[in-house]
Amino acid sequence: MRKISLVLVAALLLSVGNVLANDYKPENPIKKISTQIHKMLEDNNFDVSDDLTADVRFTVNSEGEIVVLSVVTSNQVLEGFVKGRLNYKKVDNAQEGKIYTVPVRIEA
Fold first, then answer.
1. Which residue of 12, 33, 35, 94 could cross-link 60, Cys pair, CB 3.0 to 4.6 Å?
2. Contact between residue 85 and residue 79 where contact means Cβ atoms under 8 Å apart
3. Contact 36, 91 (CB under 8 A)
4. Cβ atoms of 54 and 71 closer than 8 Å
5. What is the DSSP letter of 60?
6. In this predicted structure, what is the pLDDT of residue 22?
7. CA distance 102 to 9
8. 3-state DSSP assignment of residue 83
9. Residue 108's pLDDT band (cuts 50, 70, 90)
10. Which of 68, 39, 65 lies closest to 54, judged by CA?
11. Three-class DSSP category at 53
12. How confident is the model at residue 101 (pLDDT cuts 50, 70, 90)?
C-alpha cells in the first residue's frame, strides 16, 4: 500500500511540474498591430505644447492593408496625419474584417 501511494505522489509531482514548466504565452495580435502602427506614426513634425490624442478605428482588408474607419480627435491636423499615414498600409498578423480600435498619442 505504501509503494502505491509513493508512486501516486511521484506521478502527481511530475505532472504538476510539467504543467508549471510550460511557459507558453500566446502573443497578442493587437499588441503587434499597435507596434506596427507606432512605427508608421513615428516620424512626425508636430509642434505642440500639449499631448495630442486620438482613437483610431480601422479594419484590415483581404490584402492585409489598414482601412481607417474613423479618427476621433479634436485636432483636424492630427486626424489628417493619422489617416494619411495609416490608410492602405500593410500590417502583419491582422484578422481580416475585424474592427480594431487603437489609441494614439503624440507627445509634446
1. 94
2. no
3. yes
4. yes
5. E
6. 67
7. 49
8. helix
9. low
10. 68
11. strand
12. very high
Any idea which residue has 495609416 for its cell? 86
Element (H, E) at 41: helix 29-41
Phi then psi dihedrals of residue 45, to 5 deg: -130, 50
> Which residue's C-alpha cell is 495630442?
52
Identify the bridge partners of residue 65 per DSSP, sorted by sequence position.
90
CA distances from 69 to 28, 42, 83, 87, 101 (A): 22, 21, 9, 9, 10
- All three cell numbers of 102: 487603437
Phi, psi of 40, deg, nearest 5: -70, -30
Bridge partners, 90 (sequence order): 65
Strand order in the sheet with 100-106: 66-72, 52-60, 100-106
The rounded distance, in Å, linking the Cα atoms of 66 and 37 is 10
In this prediction the pTM is 0.70
Whole-number Å distance between alpha carbons of 53 and 72: 9
